[in-house]
Amino acid sequence: MDRIFVLVLLVMGLVLLLHGIRRIRRNRRLVRDGVRVLGVVAALESRWSSSDGGGGSYTHRPVIEFVAEDGRTRRARSGFASSRTTFIPGRRVPVHYDRDNPSDIFIPAHDGGPTAAATAIGAVLTTLGLSAFVTASRGTPITQLAGGHVFGGTMALLMGGVVLLWGLTGLLSELRVKTGPRSRGVVVGETTSLSSKGATRHHPVVRWTTSGGQVLEAPSGRGRERGRNPVGTEVVVNQHPRDPYRILLGGDPVSGSDVAALLVGALFTGVGCAVLGTSLIG
Hints:
The chain is of the alpha+beta class. The protein has 4 helices and 10 strands, in the order H-E-E-E-E-E-H-H-E-E-E-E-E-H. The radius of gyration is 22 Å and the shape is globular.
């Protein structure tokens, strides 16, 4: 039984690790040799994933529309889907695409994070699998390895670290927007998206003039199910310093899911560190 578990763990780790390395190399190739253009989020492909408890959630995959070098308008889907996204329909985003295959795109602010996370998880699982394989080959059951605490503590540390990093990255990214360049804007329209639970979120489309005199227009990254902003409403616009089309409006709170991920990740990380420290030192 131990050997089967170890084999499954090792195979999962190797698949994630090799797939992640392959994606990282592919992303670097598109940045180095591909064509960089400014596209627009044409739509979000939303898919419902049910859970065993009868619930579930939507995951969203952005579809980007852009004009290629040959003058033709192309559409391409991102390789990753997520339960929450800042890629609201109508937002302009930079993309890198393959000249020979324009449907192969890389969105720096979207595809890089999941690839790095999957690669890191694969590396940890592969290391755990190899270590457990050596242990099992010597005839020592995995459950007897420091009372099973080393293995359990490592898994708690892995899960907690991933969730903690996810929440921390999201919060830091939002803080960069909220502390970025600030302008006065006006609501000129509206676009919609679905939340992870399927509720319709209303995103005001805002037009503003930057400090450099450039007139920009983009949907707010924070949508509301109620309390919509009517056209003509004056608002404060906070924009990302490197991605001016990623905006939040003045008064928008930080994401609750990021805060929850940060707290849960910190808890699991702390428990994992405590268990590992007690097992290895004691």
